[in-house]
């Protein structure tokens, strides 16, 4: 009797290990791109399926992102633009390209920005309810950001840093069968935004001259 119980326990443990391994191999890894932006300026960043992620079929997603300042930013802030642009939905690297319910069944916008501009949710699903491959490099969303000085001087905000992170508590993916597709919490990476100085007018003038010269050289050829 004891041997039978032990054998059953061993089989159950093996099955559990197999299920855990199977789930881990199918967890989607997300990556928020990083960038820099001028004080009081704007910036667009992509949220993509990481290069190290396994390919997984998804048919529905709710992607929630949030902004957290990493330095003392005073009265300045980094916000999600409201409303967010939907232009990326028509680009070939979008995960639901040519099969987006938001595009083919217009109604609610793809993005909902929170009341203070620090949180945004992107929601979309496939129009035909079939899976699309969330393969490495596929774009899940393109976010538009704006930096507000809020009474701070430009000098005071230079070097300020903000984190753009996936809120894994509320981000969800599902396949066409309605089964959840899990997010790899350990592998998913946040994006970093750094505030930089606005170029001096003299610098901008030199830049314009250099650009004009480049255009003229190209025309001569």
UniProtKB/TrEMBL annotation:
Is this entry keyworded Signal?
Answer: yes
Q: Which residues form the signal peptide?
A: 1-26
What Pfam family does this protein match (any one)? PEP-CTERM
Coiled-coil region(s)? none
Could you tell me the superkingdom of the organism this chain comes from?
Answer: Bacteria
Keywords, in A-Z order = Signal
Domain Ice-binding protein C-terminal spans what residues?
A: 197-219
Q: What is the name attached to this protein's record? A: PEP-CTERM sorting domain-containing protein
